[in-house]
Design brief:
- Helix 1 (about 10-20) packs parallel to helix 13 and helix 4 (about 125-140) packs across helix 5 (about 150-165).
- The two termini are about 30 Å apart.
- This protein has 2 domains: about 1-210 and about 370-395, Vaccinia Virus protein VP39 (Rossmann fold), CATH 3.40.50.150; about 210-260, no CATH class.
- It has helices at about 10-20, 30-45, 100-110, 125-140, 150-165, 215-225, 225-230, 235-240, 245-255, 265-270, 335-345, 355-365, 370-399, and strands at about 1-5, 25-30, 55, 70-75, 110-120, 170-180, 190-200, 210-215, 260, 325, 330-335.
- Helices cover about 35% and strands about 15% of the residues.
- It has a 7-stranded mixed sheet, with helices on both faces. Strands 8-9 form a two-stranded parallel sheet. The protein has a two-stranded antiparallel sheet with strand order 10-11.
């Protein structure tokens, strides 16, 4: 199945959809360092990206008609207009690329699309704009008129939705806030996903169910001790982490999802990597120690035995206290690039290009490869099942 990847960054979402069975016809990204990362891995012969056609350019200037048919469009439109660390301008922010995503859908008419963005987009202050994005994606051919404000355009789209007389191209769109930890990623990372299917496809779809849970992690740590035994963790660290069994934790241990797989922790992700200050670390690419980590109010780092906090990019690189480990002995250190890549579930063989700050920015902006694969695989299975049904009907008609 053919796809187009927009706003590709370092390649996390595109790698995940490729693992799900889609083949990118074009990968579009304007940032030089992100494109250099992809090209560097192509030069190394990394198989997932080796055949990608990378277009280093503004997605607004890309010639979508040149691609012909694609089954899927995917991408993460720049999130600065909606992030907690951004300026919160939404439509009035020149970095808002949702209009470009809608244009791509309008011109290519894919069977499906997957777009991802920050949790901040779901805040109450963006409620109307969140609805506006969904309606634009639902009715991509109802475009904004010259001189028309976005709220007036929103009203026209609402009237179209309620009319019931939709004849133009339209999509059935669903959205959900997904926590990456619920799908086996060793990081608490909440992102909103927009998934749409062309209405004439007749497809029915829902988001994949969670496979991992916090309750199960607690069970393996507090009740059975299986987690600690697996990692050969001593009694002192166990007791330091487990602490007091509060009413909240007791309630979690009796939750319905306690029998899912346990959330994967920071320790799960990096336990086999040497300390970046050791001689052994010098033999590993992207695993260099970066000095200067220290906590400050609201930024206290990630503990080893829970999923990491959300990896962030920041306007000026790494924000002091988030992208670091809080050790049990009271010390702190920054994640290395390789550790951060593991938190985003990039393969160990995938190398990042640029300075530490640049690579951490790419990683902080990325979609976890595993999460992209989970959502992409669910969409791919639906498309393949529909194609199988279409072929069966063709055979029956000929018979």
């Amino acid at each position: 199945m053919k796809s187009l990847e927009l706003f590709a960054g370092g390649g996390g979402l595109a790698m995940g959809t490729e693992l799900a069975g889609f083949k990118p016809m074009a990968v579009v990204e304007w940032d030089k360092w992100s494109c250099d990362t992809i090209r560097h891995n192509q030069a190394l012969g990394f198989p997932l990206v080796e055949k990608w056609k990378v277009h280093q350019m503004d997605a607004r200037e890309f010639d979508y008609a040149s691609l012909g048919h694609v089954d899927l469009i995917s991408g993460g439109p720049p999130c600065q207009p909606f992030s907690l660390g951004g300026k919160h301008k939404a439509y009035d922010d020149a970095r808002d690329m949702f209009p470009t995503a809608v244009r791509a859908v309008r011109e290519l008419k894919p069977i499906a699309f997957i777009f991802e963005n920050v949790k901040g987009l779901t805040r109450a202050s963006f409620a109307n704009y969140f609805q506006y994005i969904q309606l634009q994606l639902s009715f991509p051919e109802i475009t904004i008129r010259s001189g028309e404000g976005w709220t007036d355009h929103l009203e026209r789209l609402e009237r179209e939705r309620t009319s019931g007389n939709v004849e133009d191209l339209h999509y059935n769109v669903v959205t959900r806030l997904l926590n990456a930890a619920d799908h086996g990623i060793p990081q608490v990372r909440e992102r909103v996903f927009f998934v749409g299917f062309r209405s004439d496809s007749g497809l029915r779809w829902s988001f994949p169910k969670a496979t991992h849970s916090f309750s199960s992690l607690l069970k393996h740590q507090i009740e059975t001790g299986a987690y600690w035994n697996e990692h050969q963790v001593g009694r002192a660290e166990r007791e330091h982490h487990n602490g007091r069994l509060t009413p909240r934790l007791k309630k979690a241990l009796s939750a319905e999802d306690v029998n899912l797989l346990p959330w994967r922790t920071l320790r799960d992700a990096i336990h086999d990597l040497p300390d970046p200050r050791s001689k052994a670390a010098a033999r590993l690419y992207d695993h260099s120690f970066q000095p200067g980590a220290k906590p400050y109010p609201g930024h206290t780092g990630s503990v080893l035995d829970l999923p990491a906090k959300t990896l962030k990019a920041g306007d000026h690189g790494v924000p002091g206290g988030e992208n670091m480990i809080a050790m049990y002995d009271g010390t702190y250190r920054y994640f290395t690039v390789r550790e951060s890549a593991r938190l985003q579930t990039f393969p160990d063989g995938y190398m990042f290009h640029g300075s530490w700050t640049e690579t951490m920015r790419q990683l902080g902006n990325a979609v976890p490869v595993r999460l992209a694969q989970v959502v992409g695989s669910s969409v791919a299975m639906q498309l393949l099942a529909a194609e199988e049904q279409r072929l069966k009907k063709g055979v029956l008609r000929r018979a």
